[in-house]
């Protein structure tokens, strides 16, 4: 029987009750010669992590985390040594995004904590639940300048939802519970706990216990808001949904699919909303969010009502799709809308997104909407034809490989429930617009902080959380070498995925943008090591296909193997500027067809 793959957060509630641990550290803590418990604050903290259902802690050890590391070794939780704290934080970040449960990363004080920062910020801005734990020096040295001592709590303040040092041993259960509760509550994000080395070492009584995680039911939107939204929908002819990552996080995609198919409403996903509705669905208009006016804008411009669902402004600014600020908008989310000139909703339906959509579907099944039929279908066809136009010519042995061409091959070979994790660069733009996604969390893109270096550690998280899933991490040469050291972590863990490196010897996206604005680029050229030999030096099988047919062969073998493999492709970046030219021509007056529906 085919193994069921969990494709989204497993929470029906915020902060869902975790799997009970079968093992408790407190049972294994020995007593000292006087019969007193040698259970320390570090043991208590680890017991709290077990209670939260934590399976892995990713990090880099330091002297000041010694107590925590030994307590972890006595527990059911596996500590995974990483090669850089940023890698550890990115693994925790993507773990949180894929599972809905906070990923946990650990670093020592000072440089360990500063290295962790980018991954923590990424989780926070991408709304992924993450709990970071860092060590600190003892209280006897915090009042003056001392070795590796910086104010870590202050440093984490702007990149976390909540952040605190542990000031007394008895509050450990509260602090850990609060860190997990807030990280996992909508909208999720990062929290941080600091534990001083002297406190970690202190003994605690055996009857101090972790707090029990309790589910928090998400509240429903006000009935009157639902009715008002339905009224707006009934008076529209061409409504369109913009689905953000929130539509995936809270298991709303099933209801969204029903709404779209049942009422024939087109859905456009943001980069982080990809897969909220399958791109095989006739209502999907794939993705919006590139910096230039793409085909999908034709449908957005022609729509007379926009429903945003779990849309996150940090990901994609509304002035990009609503330049005149005059689109009627219904905002459907957990939180009220940001105040923003180009995003001034006529109505806000604030509450559980899945519940709101369920209410919509219930009402509309009795009395369906009367909408203009198929007004957006020409746009869908144009988008799909455009993607197909990048197919590589496998018959001619022409050596040219482009990123969108390679993506078409990956899409053909990767199963529908496979996972593509994107790094940040020009390839991300292509992945967003040219990689159809068929399930929620079928394509992970960091688009809040949008930090380079996330894809390789992210694939480690994917392979640990969903070991039977086919996974590809797609990266540029720049982003790959930012965290390439984590290949060793992946190899040691024996996790399986395909690391795909698109090599253009350049920080490609930056030269693309510079070329667009100034006609030339500077400060972007790179030279690279032999990536194949580099991977092989870790004991990893690697390929360097020279033409499209060899690329197909390499992808087929690598994806089917479910093993850790690397494929380096030299890519021709000329498609980047050609795309901008093509779209510019398309939008020239008189060049394109009339906007859909008019
Ligand atoms: C950590 C970080 N540093 C810098 C940037 C700015 N930046 C965005 S894309 C990019 C270039 C990416 O180059 P590469 O990884 O080779 O991918 P390509 O654009 O060639 O596909 C840079 C430098 C960033 N997003 N993140």
Would you give an account of this structure?
The chain is built from 22 helices and 18 strands. The protein starts with 40 loop residues before the first helix and ends in an 11-residue tail after the last helix. The relative contact order is 0.10. The strands form 3 sheets. It has a 6-stranded parallel beta sheet with strand order 2-1-3-4-6-5, sandwiched between helices. Strands 9-8-7-10-11-12 form a 6-stranded parallel beta sheet. A 6-stranded parallel beta sheet has the order 14-13-15-16-18-17, with helices on both faces. By secondary structure, the protein is of the alpha/beta class. Helix content is 37%, strand content 14%. The structure holds thiamine diphosphate. The site of thiamine diphosphate has 20 residues, from helix 15, helix 17 and helix 19.
Largest sheet, spatial ordering of strands? 2-1-3-4-6-5
Strand content: 5-15%
Radius of gyration: 25 Å
Q: Give the N-to-C terminal Cα separation.
A: 50 Å
User: Roughly what percent helix?
Assistant: 25-40%
What structural category do the secondary elements indicate? Answer: alpha/beta
The largest pleated sheet is described as: 6 strands, parallel
Which cofactor or ligand species appear? Answer: thiamine diphosphate
Continuous helix count: 22
Question: Uncertain regions: pLDDT < 50 for 5+ in a row?
Answer: 1-12, 15-27, 593-598
Give the tally of β-strands.
18
Outline type: globular
């Amino acid at each position: 029987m085919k193994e069921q793959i969990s494709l989204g957060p497993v929470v029906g509630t915020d902060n869902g009750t975790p799997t009970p641990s079968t093992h408790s550290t407190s049972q294994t803590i020995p007593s000292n010669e006087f019969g007193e418990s040698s259970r320390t604050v570090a043991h208590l903290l680890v017991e709290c992590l077990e209670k939260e259902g934590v399976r892995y802690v990713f990090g880099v050890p330091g002297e000041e985390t010694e107590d925590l590391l030994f307590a972890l070794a006595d527990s059911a939780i596996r500590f995974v040594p990483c090669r850089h704290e940023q890698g550890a934080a990115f693994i925790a970040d993507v773990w949180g995004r894929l599972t809905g449960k906070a990923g946990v990363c650990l670093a020592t004080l000072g440089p360990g904590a500063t290295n962790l920062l980018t991954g923590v910020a990424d989780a926070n801005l991408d709304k992924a639940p993450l709990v970071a734990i860092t060590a600190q020096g003892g209280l006897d040295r915090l009042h003056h300048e001392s070795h590796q001592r910086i104010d870590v709590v202050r440093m984490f303040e702007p990149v976390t939802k909540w952040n605190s040092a542990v000031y007394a041993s008895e509050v450990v259960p509260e602090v850990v519970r609060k860190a997990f509760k807030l990280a996992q509550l909508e909208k999720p994000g990062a929290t941080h706990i600091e534990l001083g080395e002297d406190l970690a070492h202190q003994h605690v009584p055996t009857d101090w216990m972790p707090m029990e995680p309790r589910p928090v039911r998400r509240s429903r939107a006000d009935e009157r808001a639902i009715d008002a939204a339905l009224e707006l929908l009934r008076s529209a002819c061409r409504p369109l949904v913009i689905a953000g990552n929130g539509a995936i996080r809270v298991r709303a995609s099933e209801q969204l699919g029903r709404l779209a198919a049942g009422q024939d409403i087109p859905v456009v996903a943001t980069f982080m909303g990809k897969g909220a509705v399958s791109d095989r669905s006739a209502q999907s208009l794939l993705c919006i969010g590139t910096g230039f006016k793409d085909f999908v804008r034709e449908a957005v411009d022609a729509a007379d009502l926009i429903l945003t669902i779990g849309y996150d402004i940090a990901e994609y600014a509304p002035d990009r799709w609503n330049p005149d600020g005059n689109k009627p908008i219904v905002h459907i989310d957990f939180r009220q809308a940001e105040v923003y000139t180009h995003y001034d909703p006529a109505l806000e339906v604030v509450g559980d997104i899945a519940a709101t959509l369920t209410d919509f579907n219930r009402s509309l099944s009795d009395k369906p909407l009367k909408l203009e039929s198929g007004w957006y279908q020409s746009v869908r066809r144009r988008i799909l034809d455009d993607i197909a136009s990048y197919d590589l010519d496998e018959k001619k042995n022409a050596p040219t490989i482009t990123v969108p061409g390679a993506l078409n091959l990956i899409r053909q070979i990767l199963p529908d429930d496979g996972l593509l994790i994107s790094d940040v660069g020009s390839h991300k733009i292509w992945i967003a617009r040219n990689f159809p996604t068929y399930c929620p969390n079928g394509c992970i893109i960091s688009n809040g902080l949008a930090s380079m270096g996330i894809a390789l550690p992210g694939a480690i998280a994917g392979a640990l959380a969903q070991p039977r899933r086919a996974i590809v991490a797609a990266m540029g040469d720049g982003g790959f070498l930012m965290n390439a050291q984590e290949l060793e972590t992946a190899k040691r863990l024996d996790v399986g995925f395909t690391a795909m490196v698109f090599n253009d010897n350049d920080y490609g996206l930056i030269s693309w943008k510079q070329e667009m604005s100034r006609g030339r680029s500077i400060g972007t050229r790179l030279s690279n090591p032999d990536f194949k030999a580099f991977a092989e030096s870790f004991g990893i099988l690697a390929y360097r296909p020279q033409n499209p047919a060899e690329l197909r062969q390499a992808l087929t073998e690598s994806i089917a193997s479910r093993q850790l493999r690397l494929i380096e492709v030299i890519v021709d970046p000329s498609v980047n500027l050609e795309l901008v030219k093509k779209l510019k021509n398309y939008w020239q007056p008189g060049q394109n067809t009339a906007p859909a529906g008019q």
